[in-house]
Specification:
alpha+beta, 6-stranded antiparallel β-sheet, 5 helices, 32 strands, 30% helix, disordered N terminus, coiled coil, repeat
Length: 567
Protein backbone atom coordinates (compact mmCIF):
# COMPACT_ATOMS: atom_id res chain seq x y z
CA UNK A 1 0.00 0.00 0.00
CA UNK A 2 1.33 3.44 -0.93
CA UNK A 3 0.33 6.73 0.67
CA UNK A 4 0.02 9.95 -1.30
CA UNK A 5 -1.65 13.35 -1.32
CA UNK A 6 -1.80 16.61 0.61
CA UNK A 7 -0.85 15.19 4.01
CA UNK A 8 0.31 11.65 3.45
CA UNK A 9 -1.69 10.30 6.40
CA UNK A 10 -4.96 11.15 4.66
CA UNK A 11 -4.82 9.23 1.38
CA UNK A 12 -4.15 5.71 0.25
CA UNK A 13 -3.78 3.84 -3.04
CA UNK A 14 -5.11 0.29 -3.10
CA UNK A 15 -4.16 -2.15 -5.85
CA UNK A 16 -4.37 -5.81 -6.81
CA UNK A 17 -2.88 -7.43 -9.93
CA UNK A 18 -4.63 -9.64 -12.47
CA UNK A 19 -3.87 -10.61 -16.07
CA UNK A 20 -6.28 -10.75 -19.02
CA UNK A 21 -4.93 -11.93 -22.39
CA UNK A 22 -2.36 -9.33 -23.41
CA UNK A 23 -3.71 -6.73 -20.95
CA UNK A 24 -2.80 -6.95 -17.28
CA UNK A 25 -4.91 -5.13 -14.72
CA UNK A 26 -4.07 -3.96 -11.24
CA UNK A 27 -7.44 -3.45 -9.54
CA UNK A 28 -8.46 -1.94 -6.20
CA UNK A 29 -8.70 -4.44 -3.36
CA UNK A 30 -11.57 -2.54 -1.79
CA UNK A 31 -15.12 -3.34 -2.81
CA UNK A 32 -16.04 0.36 -2.84
CA UNK A 33 -15.06 1.11 -6.43
CA UNK A 34 -16.26 4.33 -8.04
CA UNK A 35 -19.28 3.32 -10.12
CA UNK A 36 -17.97 4.42 -13.53
CA UNK A 37 -14.63 2.71 -12.98
CA UNK A 38 -16.24 -0.49 -11.68
CA UNK A 39 -18.60 -0.76 -14.62
CA UNK A 40 -15.78 -0.28 -17.17
CA UNK A 41 -13.54 -2.73 -15.38
CA UNK A 42 -16.31 -5.33 -15.24
CA UNK A 43 -17.07 -4.81 -18.95
CA UNK A 44 -13.41 -5.29 -19.82
CA UNK A 45 -13.13 -8.37 -17.61
CA UNK A 46 -16.31 -9.87 -19.12
CA UNK A 47 -15.13 -9.13 -22.65
CA UNK A 48 -11.74 -10.71 -22.06
CA UNK A 49 -13.07 -13.77 -20.24
CA UNK A 50 -15.62 -14.45 -23.01
CA UNK A 51 -12.90 -14.73 -25.68
CA UNK A 52 -10.87 -17.71 -26.64
CA UNK A 53 -7.25 -16.64 -26.27
CA UNK A 54 -6.25 -18.59 -29.38
CA UNK A 55 -8.86 -16.74 -31.44
CA UNK A 56 -7.50 -13.24 -30.80
CA UNK A 57 -6.09 -11.78 -34.00
CA UNK A 58 -2.62 -10.27 -33.94
CA UNK A 59 -4.21 -7.13 -35.36
CA UNK A 60 -5.80 -6.64 -31.94
CA UNK A 61 -2.46 -6.72 -30.15
CA UNK A 62 0.34 -4.19 -30.02
CA UNK A 63 3.55 -5.31 -31.68
CA UNK A 64 6.67 -5.23 -29.49
CA UNK A 65 8.61 -1.98 -29.79
CA UNK A 66 10.77 0.56 -27.96
CA UNK A 67 11.87 4.22 -28.30
CA UNK A 68 8.23 5.17 -29.04
CA UNK A 69 5.57 7.41 -27.49
CA UNK A 70 1.92 6.80 -26.63
CA UNK A 71 -0.41 9.80 -26.77
CA UNK A 72 -4.01 10.15 -25.58
CA UNK A 73 -6.70 11.89 -27.61
CA UNK A 74 -10.06 11.77 -25.87
CA UNK A 75 -10.76 8.15 -24.96
CA UNK A 76 -8.23 6.78 -27.46
CA UNK A 77 -4.54 5.99 -27.10
CA UNK A 78 -2.27 6.20 -30.16
CA UNK A 79 1.18 4.68 -30.75
CA UNK A 80 3.31 5.08 -33.87
CA UNK A 81 6.63 3.64 -35.07
CA UNK A 82 9.51 3.24 -32.61
CA UNK A 83 12.22 0.59 -32.80
CA UNK A 84 10.61 -2.70 -33.82
CA UNK A 85 11.55 -5.92 -35.55
CA UNK A 86 11.18 -5.72 -39.32
CA UNK A 87 11.41 -1.92 -39.61
CA UNK A 88 14.28 -1.17 -42.06
CA UNK A 89 17.13 0.84 -40.55
CA UNK A 90 17.42 3.11 -43.59
CA UNK A 91 16.76 6.76 -44.32
CA UNK A 92 13.77 6.05 -46.52
CA UNK A 93 12.35 3.12 -48.45
CA UNK A 94 9.06 1.75 -49.72
CA UNK A 95 9.04 -0.90 -46.97
CA UNK A 96 9.77 1.68 -44.26
CA UNK A 97 6.93 3.89 -45.45
CA UNK A 98 4.59 0.89 -45.67
CA UNK A 99 5.21 0.05 -42.02
CA UNK A 100 5.22 3.63 -40.69
CA UNK A 101 2.03 4.48 -42.60
CA UNK A 102 0.19 2.40 -39.99
CA UNK A 103 -0.73 3.68 -36.54
CA UNK A 104 -2.26 1.65 -33.74
CA UNK A 105 -4.87 2.92 -31.33
CA UNK A 106 -6.42 1.55 -28.14
CA UNK A 107 -9.73 2.31 -26.42
CA UNK A 108 -10.51 1.25 -22.84
CA UNK A 109 -14.08 0.34 -23.77
CA UNK A 110 -12.93 -2.48 -26.08
CA UNK A 111 -9.53 -3.31 -24.61
CA UNK A 112 -8.21 -3.87 -28.15
CA UNK A 113 -5.49 -2.39 -30.30
CA UNK A 114 -6.67 -1.53 -33.82
CA UNK A 115 -4.20 -0.97 -36.67
CA UNK A 116 -5.27 1.88 -38.94
CA UNK A 117 -3.74 3.03 -42.20
CA UNK A 118 -2.81 6.66 -42.80
CA UNK A 119 -2.39 8.83 -45.89
CA UNK A 120 0.32 11.33 -46.69
CA UNK A 121 4.01 10.99 -45.87
CA UNK A 122 4.92 9.97 -42.29
CA UNK A 123 8.04 11.38 -40.58
CA UNK A 124 11.44 9.81 -41.24
CA UNK A 125 12.51 10.11 -37.59
CA UNK A 126 10.92 6.91 -36.28
CA UNK A 127 12.81 6.47 -32.98
CA UNK A 128 13.10 8.62 -29.86
CA UNK A 129 10.98 11.36 -31.41
CA UNK A 130 8.95 13.82 -29.33
CA UNK A 131 5.17 13.82 -29.54
CA UNK A 132 2.25 15.77 -28.10
CA UNK A 133 -1.47 16.18 -28.78
CA UNK A 134 -3.56 19.31 -29.30
CA UNK A 135 -7.26 18.54 -29.65
CA UNK A 136 -7.52 15.93 -32.45
CA UNK A 137 -4.04 16.62 -33.83
CA UNK A 138 -0.80 14.78 -33.03
CA UNK A 139 2.53 16.58 -33.51
CA UNK A 140 5.86 14.78 -33.99
CA UNK A 141 9.26 16.47 -33.71
CA UNK A 142 12.78 15.22 -34.41
CA UNK A 143 13.69 11.57 -34.10
CA UNK A 144 16.28 9.12 -35.40
CA UNK A 145 16.10 7.33 -38.76
CA UNK A 146 17.93 4.24 -37.51
CA UNK A 147 20.99 4.65 -39.75
CA UNK A 148 24.32 6.43 -39.27
CA UNK A 149 24.06 9.88 -37.62
CA UNK A 150 20.74 10.88 -39.17
CA UNK A 151 18.71 12.96 -36.72
CA UNK A 152 15.87 15.29 -37.61
CA UNK A 153 14.38 18.68 -36.69
CA UNK A 154 11.17 18.29 -38.67
CA UNK A 155 7.61 18.86 -37.40
CA UNK A 156 4.83 16.65 -38.77
CA UNK A 157 1.12 16.74 -37.95
CA UNK A 158 -1.27 13.77 -37.94
CA UNK A 159 -5.01 14.39 -37.97
CA UNK A 160 -6.55 11.56 -35.90
CA UNK A 161 -9.93 12.07 -37.62
CA UNK A 162 -8.82 11.91 -41.27
CA UNK A 163 -5.59 10.00 -40.41
CA UNK A 164 -3.67 12.21 -42.83
CA UNK A 165 -0.05 13.29 -42.34
CA UNK A 166 0.99 16.88 -43.01
CA UNK A 167 4.60 18.07 -42.89
CA UNK A 168 4.77 21.51 -41.29
CA UNK A 169 8.57 21.83 -41.26
CA UNK A 170 10.98 19.56 -43.16
CA UNK A 171 14.35 18.64 -41.69
CA UNK A 172 16.85 21.42 -42.41
CA UNK A 173 20.51 21.06 -41.40
CA UNK A 174 21.01 24.86 -41.63
CA UNK A 175 18.08 25.78 -39.39
CA UNK A 176 19.07 27.16 -35.94
CA UNK A 177 17.16 24.29 -34.33
CA UNK A 178 19.40 21.38 -33.38
CA UNK A 179 18.56 18.07 -35.07
CA UNK A 180 17.98 15.85 -32.09
CA UNK A 181 16.28 12.94 -30.34
CA UNK A 182 15.30 11.98 -26.77
CA UNK A 183 14.32 15.51 -25.78
CA UNK A 184 10.92 16.73 -24.64
CA UNK A 185 8.02 18.56 -26.25
CA UNK A 186 4.92 20.13 -24.71
CA UNK A 187 2.24 22.43 -26.07
CA UNK A 188 0.72 25.60 -24.67
CA UNK A 189 -1.73 28.28 -25.77
CA UNK A 190 -1.17 32.04 -25.74
CA UNK A 191 -3.78 34.56 -26.92
CA UNK A 192 -5.68 31.80 -28.72
CA UNK A 193 -2.61 30.55 -30.59
CA UNK A 194 -1.08 27.13 -29.94
CA UNK A 195 2.68 26.76 -29.61
CA UNK A 196 5.06 23.82 -29.37
CA UNK A 197 8.02 24.01 -26.97
CA UNK A 198 10.91 21.59 -27.53
CA UNK A 199 13.55 21.30 -24.79
CA UNK A 200 16.91 19.51 -24.70
CA UNK A 201 17.98 16.39 -26.53
CA UNK A 202 20.88 14.54 -28.08
CA UNK A 203 21.95 14.57 -31.70
CA UNK A 204 23.87 16.10 -34.58
CA UNK A 205 26.27 19.04 -34.46
CA UNK A 206 24.17 22.23 -34.21
CA UNK A 207 24.23 24.53 -37.23
CA UNK A 208 24.09 27.51 -34.85
CA UNK A 209 24.93 27.57 -31.14
CA UNK A 210 22.37 30.01 -29.79
CA UNK A 211 23.23 32.29 -26.85
CA UNK A 212 21.79 31.51 -23.41
CA UNK A 213 21.78 27.76 -24.15
CA UNK A 214 24.54 25.17 -23.83
CA UNK A 215 25.85 22.69 -26.40
CA UNK A 216 28.33 20.02 -25.30
CA UNK A 217 30.20 17.76 -27.72
CA UNK A 218 30.39 14.19 -26.42
CA UNK A 219 33.11 11.58 -26.81
CA UNK A 220 31.14 9.76 -29.54
CA UNK A 221 30.93 12.91 -31.65
CA UNK A 222 27.26 13.58 -30.84
CA UNK A 223 26.05 16.71 -29.04
CA UNK A 224 23.81 17.23 -26.02
CA UNK A 225 21.95 20.49 -25.39
CA UNK A 226 19.39 22.30 -23.24
CA UNK A 227 18.21 24.34 -26.24
CA UNK A 228 14.63 25.69 -26.06
CA UNK A 229 12.90 25.84 -29.46
CA UNK A 230 9.42 27.38 -29.69
CA UNK A 231 7.18 26.96 -32.74
CA UNK A 232 4.09 29.08 -33.47
CA UNK A 233 1.55 26.78 -35.16
CA UNK A 234 -0.36 29.76 -36.58
CA UNK A 235 2.47 31.81 -38.10
CA UNK A 236 4.73 28.73 -38.48
CA UNK A 237 7.65 30.76 -37.12
CA UNK A 238 10.44 29.63 -34.78
CA UNK A 239 11.60 31.53 -31.70
CA UNK A 240 13.78 30.96 -28.63
CA UNK A 241 12.50 31.96 -25.17
CA UNK A 242 14.72 33.35 -22.43
CA UNK A 243 15.45 31.05 -19.49
CA UNK A 244 15.29 32.14 -15.85
CA UNK A 245 16.15 30.27 -12.67
CA UNK A 246 17.77 26.86 -12.21
CA UNK A 247 17.65 25.59 -15.79
CA UNK A 248 18.57 21.97 -16.44
CA UNK A 249 22.06 21.47 -17.97
CA UNK A 250 22.34 19.89 -21.43
CA UNK A 251 20.13 16.81 -21.02
CA UNK A 252 18.30 14.00 -22.79
CA UNK A 253 16.29 10.83 -22.09
CA UNK A 254 14.22 12.53 -19.37
CA UNK A 255 10.42 12.69 -19.02
CA UNK A 256 8.56 15.99 -19.24
CA UNK A 257 4.80 16.31 -18.78
CA UNK A 258 2.43 19.27 -18.96
CA UNK A 259 0.61 20.09 -15.70
CA UNK A 260 -1.55 22.86 -17.16
CA UNK A 261 -1.28 25.50 -19.86
CA UNK A 262 1.60 27.33 -18.12
CA UNK A 263 3.31 24.65 -16.01
CA UNK A 264 5.23 21.44 -16.66
CA UNK A 265 7.24 18.92 -14.64
CA UNK A 266 10.49 17.19 -15.69
CA UNK A 267 12.25 14.24 -14.04
CA UNK A 268 15.50 12.33 -14.48
CA UNK A 269 17.58 11.84 -17.61
CA UNK A 270 21.24 12.19 -18.52
CA UNK A 271 22.90 15.58 -17.97
CA UNK A 272 26.30 16.66 -19.29
CA UNK A 273 28.56 19.18 -17.54
CA UNK A 274 31.03 21.60 -19.13
CA UNK A 275 33.73 18.90 -19.03
CA UNK A 276 31.54 16.57 -21.14
CA UNK A 277 30.94 14.27 -18.16
CA UNK A 278 27.59 12.45 -18.24
CA UNK A 279 25.56 11.90 -15.06
CA UNK A 280 22.22 10.20 -14.47
CA UNK A 281 19.99 12.42 -12.35
CA UNK A 282 16.94 12.11 -10.12
CA UNK A 283 16.19 15.83 -9.88
CA UNK A 284 12.70 17.21 -10.37
CA UNK A 285 12.22 20.47 -12.31
CA UNK A 286 9.08 22.60 -12.29
CA UNK A 287 8.69 24.89 -15.33
CA UNK A 288 6.62 28.09 -15.52
CA UNK A 289 6.08 28.87 -19.21
CA UNK A 290 5.20 32.12 -20.97
CA UNK A 291 5.47 33.28 -24.56
CA UNK A 292 8.91 34.84 -24.00
CA UNK A 293 10.40 33.10 -20.96
CA UNK A 294 10.67 29.75 -19.20
CA UNK A 295 11.23 29.90 -15.43
CA UNK A 296 12.96 26.81 -13.95
CA UNK A 297 12.79 25.54 -10.36
CA UNK A 298 15.00 22.58 -9.37
CA UNK A 299 13.93 20.20 -6.59
CA UNK A 300 16.71 17.91 -5.38
CA UNK A 301 16.48 14.92 -3.05
CA UNK A 302 16.77 16.13 0.57
CA UNK A 303 19.50 14.30 2.50
CA UNK A 304 17.10 13.39 5.31
CA UNK A 305 14.57 11.71 2.99
CA UNK A 306 15.00 8.13 1.76
CA UNK A 307 11.67 7.92 -0.10
CA UNK A 308 13.04 9.13 -3.45
CA UNK A 309 13.67 7.24 -6.72
CA UNK A 310 17.27 6.64 -7.79
CA UNK A 311 18.82 8.53 -10.69
CA UNK A 312 17.79 7.11 -14.05
CA UNK A 313 17.34 7.54 -17.78
CA UNK A 314 15.32 5.74 -20.51
CA UNK A 315 12.34 5.65 -18.11
CA UNK A 316 8.71 6.50 -18.83
CA UNK A 317 6.31 8.95 -17.23
CA UNK A 318 2.80 10.39 -17.36
CA UNK A 319 0.80 13.06 -15.57
CA UNK A 320 -2.22 12.30 -13.37
CA UNK A 321 -4.65 15.19 -12.92
CA UNK A 322 -7.90 14.37 -11.12
CA UNK A 323 -8.43 17.84 -9.69
CA UNK A 324 -6.89 21.28 -9.62
CA UNK A 325 -5.25 20.88 -6.22
CA UNK A 326 -3.14 17.75 -6.55
CA UNK A 327 -1.44 16.93 -9.88
CA UNK A 328 0.89 13.92 -9.80
CA UNK A 329 3.69 12.52 -11.96
CA UNK A 330 3.95 8.74 -12.29
CA UNK A 331 7.23 7.20 -13.50
CA UNK A 332 8.45 3.64 -13.92
CA UNK A 333 11.51 1.63 -14.92
CA UNK A 334 14.40 2.96 -16.94
CA UNK A 335 18.10 2.31 -16.39
CA UNK A 336 20.35 3.37 -13.50
CA UNK A 337 23.91 4.74 -13.56
CA UNK A 338 25.23 1.22 -14.30
CA UNK A 339 22.73 0.80 -17.16
CA UNK A 340 20.90 -1.91 -15.20
CA UNK A 341 17.15 -1.98 -15.84
CA UNK A 342 15.20 -0.68 -12.84
CA UNK A 343 12.15 -2.44 -11.43
CA UNK A 344 10.05 0.21 -9.67
CA UNK A 345 7.12 2.57 -10.04
CA UNK A 346 6.73 5.91 -8.25
CA UNK A 347 4.21 8.74 -7.90
CA UNK A 348 5.35 12.32 -7.25
CA UNK A 349 2.97 14.74 -5.53
CA UNK A 350 3.74 17.99 -7.36
CA UNK A 351 2.05 20.15 -4.72
CA UNK A 352 3.78 18.59 -1.71
CA UNK A 353 7.07 17.66 -3.46
CA UNK A 354 6.93 14.10 -2.09
CA UNK A 355 7.41 10.65 -3.64
CA UNK A 356 5.52 7.42 -2.95
CA UNK A 357 6.60 4.02 -4.24
CA UNK A 358 3.89 1.79 -5.71
CA UNK A 359 3.89 -1.97 -5.45
CA UNK A 360 3.30 -3.27 -8.98
CA UNK A 361 4.31 -6.54 -10.72
CA UNK A 362 7.75 -6.87 -12.34
CA UNK A 363 6.05 -7.26 -15.71
CA UNK A 364 4.72 -3.71 -15.33
CA UNK A 365 7.74 -1.86 -13.98
CA UNK A 366 10.88 -3.75 -15.06
CA UNK A 367 11.52 -2.30 -18.50
CA UNK A 368 13.25 0.57 -20.28
CA UNK A 369 12.59 2.65 -23.42
CA UNK A 370 8.85 2.08 -22.87
CA UNK A 371 5.88 4.45 -22.54
CA UNK A 372 3.24 5.33 -19.95
CA UNK A 373 -0.20 6.84 -20.52
CA UNK A 374 -3.04 7.69 -18.16
CA UNK A 375 -6.82 7.51 -18.42
CA UNK A 376 -8.89 9.19 -15.69
CA UNK A 377 -11.81 6.78 -15.21
CA UNK A 378 -13.32 8.75 -12.31
CA UNK A 379 -12.10 11.31 -9.75
CA UNK A 380 -10.87 8.40 -7.62
CA UNK A 381 -9.78 5.87 -10.24
CA UNK A 382 -6.91 6.03 -12.73
CA UNK A 383 -5.79 3.59 -15.41
CA UNK A 384 -2.06 3.61 -16.19
CA UNK A 385 -1.14 1.88 -19.46
CA UNK A 386 2.44 0.66 -19.88
CA UNK A 387 3.46 -0.21 -23.45
CA UNK A 388 6.53 -1.79 -25.05
CA UNK A 389 10.17 -1.42 -24.06
CA UNK A 390 13.22 -3.61 -23.37
CA UNK A 391 13.49 -6.15 -20.55
CA UNK A 392 17.27 -6.67 -20.40
CA UNK A 393 20.68 -5.35 -21.47
CA UNK A 394 20.55 -7.53 -24.58
CA UNK A 395 17.82 -5.17 -25.82
CA UNK A 396 15.19 -7.91 -25.79
CA UNK A 397 11.79 -6.41 -26.57
CA UNK A 398 8.90 -7.10 -24.21
CA UNK A 399 6.80 -9.86 -25.78
CA UNK A 400 3.22 -11.08 -25.44
CA UNK A 401 1.35 -11.34 -23.17
CA UNK A 402 3.12 -8.47 -21.40
CA UNK A 403 3.62 -5.89 -24.18
CA UNK A 404 0.74 -3.80 -22.85
CA UNK A 405 -0.04 -3.69 -19.12
CA UNK A 406 -2.99 -1.88 -17.57
CA UNK A 407 -2.64 -0.76 -13.95
CA UNK A 408 -5.75 0.48 -12.17
CA UNK A 409 -5.31 2.66 -9.10
CA UNK A 410 -8.04 3.70 -6.68
CA UNK A 411 -7.50 6.09 -3.83
CA UNK A 412 -9.71 7.42 -1.06
CA UNK A 413 -9.54 9.45 2.13
CA UNK A 414 -8.04 7.20 4.74
CA UNK A 415 -9.39 9.07 7.74
CA UNK A 416 -12.97 8.26 6.67
CA UNK A 417 -12.10 4.57 6.53
CA UNK A 418 -10.56 4.81 10.01
CA UNK A 419 -13.66 6.52 11.43
CA UNK A 420 -15.92 3.90 9.88
CA UNK A 421 -13.75 1.14 11.36
CA UNK A 422 -13.87 2.74 14.82
CA UNK A 423 -17.62 3.14 14.58
CA UNK A 424 -18.06 -0.52 13.59
CA UNK A 425 -15.95 -1.65 16.58
CA UNK A 426 -18.00 0.50 18.98
CA UNK A 427 -21.26 -0.83 17.58
CA UNK A 428 -20.09 -4.44 17.76
CA UNK A 429 -18.87 -3.95 21.30
CA UNK A 430 -22.02 -2.34 22.68
CA UNK A 431 -24.53 -4.42 20.75
CA UNK A 432 -23.30 -7.62 22.42
CA UNK A 433 -25.84 -9.24 24.82
CA UNK A 434 -25.24 -7.96 28.35
CA UNK A 435 -26.71 -8.44 31.75
CA UNK A 436 -28.84 -5.63 33.11
CA UNK A 437 -31.47 -3.29 31.83
CA UNK A 438 -31.85 -3.58 28.02
CA UNK A 439 -33.30 -0.08 27.83
CA UNK A 440 -30.26 1.38 29.59
CA UNK A 441 -27.94 -0.48 27.23
CA UNK A 442 -29.87 0.75 24.19
CA UNK A 443 -29.81 4.29 25.54
CA UNK A 444 -26.07 4.04 26.12
CA UNK A 445 -25.54 2.73 22.59
CA UNK A 446 -27.59 5.57 21.11
CA UNK A 447 -25.64 8.10 23.16
CA UNK A 448 -22.37 6.60 21.98
CA UNK A 449 -23.55 6.62 18.36
CA UNK A 450 -24.57 10.27 18.66
CA UNK A 451 -21.23 11.10 20.26
CA UNK A 452 -19.38 9.28 17.50
CA UNK A 453 -21.43 11.01 14.80
CA UNK A 454 -20.58 14.33 16.43
CA UNK A 455 -16.91 13.38 16.35
CA UNK A 456 -17.28 12.46 12.68
CA UNK A 457 -18.83 15.85 11.94
CA UNK A 458 -16.02 17.57 13.84
CA UNK A 459 -13.49 15.53 11.87
CA UNK A 460 -15.17 16.53 8.61
CA UNK A 461 -15.12 20.19 9.64
CA UNK A 462 -11.46 19.85 10.59
CA UNK A 463 -10.68 18.21 7.28
CA UNK A 464 -12.51 20.93 5.36
CA UNK A 465 -10.57 23.56 7.32
CA UNK A 466 -7.36 21.68 6.61
CA UNK A 467 -8.14 21.47 2.87
CA UNK A 468 -9.02 25.18 2.86
CA UNK A 469 -5.73 26.00 4.57
CA UNK A 470 -3.92 23.73 2.15
CA UNK A 471 -5.54 25.50 -0.81
CA UNK A 472 -4.68 28.91 0.69
CA UNK A 473 -1.07 27.84 1.19
CA UNK A 474 -0.91 26.51 -2.36
CA UNK A 475 -2.36 29.78 -3.67
CA UNK A 476 0.10 31.73 -1.53
CA UNK A 477 2.97 29.64 -2.83
CA UNK A 478 1.75 30.17 -6.38
CA UNK A 479 1.49 33.91 -5.72
CA UNK A 480 5.04 33.92 -4.33
CA UNK A 481 6.26 32.11 -7.44
CA UNK A 482 4.45 34.58 -9.66
CA UNK A 483 5.83 37.54 -7.68
CA UNK A 484 9.33 36.09 -7.85
CA UNK A 485 8.87 35.52 -11.55
CA UNK A 486 7.69 39.13 -11.98
CA UNK A 487 10.69 40.40 -10.01
CA UNK A 488 13.03 38.36 -12.16
CA UNK A 489 11.24 39.55 -15.28
CA UNK A 490 11.55 43.17 -14.10
CA UNK A 491 15.19 42.59 -13.25
CA UNK A 492 15.73 41.16 -16.71
CA UNK A 493 13.96 44.17 -18.25
CA UNK A 494 16.08 46.47 -16.06
CA UNK A 495 19.21 44.70 -17.23
CA UNK A 496 18.04 45.10 -20.82
CA UNK A 497 17.43 48.83 -20.23
CA UNK A 498 20.87 49.20 -18.62
CA UNK A 499 22.45 47.35 -21.53
CA UNK A 500 20.60 49.58 -24.00
CA UNK A 501 21.70 52.72 -22.11
CA UNK A 502 25.25 51.43 -21.98
CA UNK A 503 25.13 50.81 -25.71
CA UNK A 504 23.74 54.32 -26.28
CA UNK A 505 26.51 55.78 -24.07
CA UNK A 506 29.12 53.82 -25.98
CA UNK A 507 27.66 55.09 -29.26
CA UNK A 508 27.79 58.71 -27.99
CA UNK A 509 31.39 58.27 -26.85
CA UNK A 510 32.32 56.75 -30.18
CA UNK A 511 30.66 59.66 -32.01
CA UNK A 512 32.55 62.17 -29.81
CA UNK A 513 35.83 60.37 -30.36
CA UNK A 514 35.17 60.33 -34.08
CA UNK A 515 34.43 64.08 -34.04
CA UNK A 516 37.64 64.79 -32.10
CA UNK A 517 39.62 62.67 -34.55
CA UNK A 518 38.07 64.52 -37.48
CA UNK A 519 38.89 67.92 -35.93
CA UNK A 520 42.41 66.78 -35.15
CA UNK A 521 42.87 65.66 -38.74
CA UNK A 522 41.60 69.03 -39.99
CA UNK A 523 43.97 70.87 -37.61
CA UNK A 524 46.88 68.72 -38.74
CA UNK A 525 46.02 69.49 -42.35
CA UNK A 526 45.98 73.26 -41.62
CA UNK A 527 49.34 73.06 -39.84
CA UNK A 528 50.82 71.01 -42.67
CA UNK A 529 49.50 73.51 -45.24
CA UNK A 530 50.95 76.46 -43.31
CA UNK A 531 54.22 74.60 -42.93
CA UNK A 532 54.35 74.04 -46.69
CA UNK A 533 53.63 77.75 -47.31
CA UNK A 534 56.36 78.70 -44.84
CA UNK A 535 58.80 76.36 -46.57
CA UNK A 536 57.97 77.92 -49.93
CA UNK A 537 58.49 81.46 -48.59
CA UNK A 538 61.71 80.41 -46.90
CA UNK A 539 62.98 78.84 -50.11
CA UNK A 540 62.05 82.00 -52.04
CA UNK A 541 63.90 84.21 -49.50
CA UNK A 542 66.93 81.97 -49.60
CA UNK A 543 66.94 82.10 -53.40
CA UNK A 544 66.68 85.93 -53.28
CA UNK A 545 69.60 86.11 -50.84
CA UNK A 546 71.68 83.85 -53.05
CA UNK A 547 70.85 86.05 -56.03
CA UNK A 548 71.89 89.21 -54.15
CA UNK A 549 75.07 87.49 -53.04
CA UNK A 550 75.87 86.64 -56.66
CA UNK A 551 75.20 90.25 -57.67
CA UNK A 552 77.49 91.57 -54.92
CA UNK A 553 80.20 89.14 -55.92
CA UNK A 554 79.87 90.28 -59.53
CA UNK A 555 80.11 93.97 -58.51
CA UNK A 556 83.12 93.21 -56.33
CA UNK A 557 84.82 91.41 -59.26
CA UNK A 558 84.10 94.36 -61.57
CA UNK A 559 85.48 96.79 -58.95
CA UNK A 560 88.71 94.80 -58.64
CA UNK A 561 89.08 94.72 -62.42
CA UNK A 562 88.60 98.48 -62.66
CA UNK A 563 91.14 99.07 -59.93
CA UNK A 564 93.66 96.85 -61.66
CA UNK A 565 93.12 98.69 -64.90
CA UNK A 566 93.74 102.03 -63.16
CA UNK A 567 97.12 100.89 -61.92
Amino acid sequence: MGVWGGETRYYSILAQYRCIDNISIVSPTTSRWPLASKQRSQELLAMASSKNKDSISTTNQLKGRSHHRTVSVGDSLYVWAGHQDGLPEVHDSEEKRRITSNIQHFTPSTGQWITRGTTGIPPLGVRAYSCTAINDQLYYFGGYCGHDDCRHNSITQLDTVSLQWRELEPTDATRPVMRRVAGGMISFEHDGVHHLLMIGGYGSKPAVQLPHYKYIKLSDGKWRTNEHSMYNLSSRKWSNPSIIGQCIPPASHFVIEKINNTRAVLFGGVVTDDDAKDTRTNNIYILEISINTVFWQCIKKPEAIDQWPVARWLHAGAIIITGSDCPMLVISGGEDKNDDILDDCWIFNITQHSWIKLGVPHSVSKRSNHSLSVFIMSPHCVWIITAGGFVDKRLTLVTNPNIVMLTELEYKKKYQQQLQTVRRIWLEEYQKPRKGDTADIEQTVQALIQSLEEKEREAQVYHQQFKQKEREEAEKEQEIRRYRHQLQEKDREHQVVLQEKDIEHQVVLQEKNLLILQKDEEHQKIIQEKDREHQVILQENQEALRQKDRELQEKDRQLRQSQEAAH
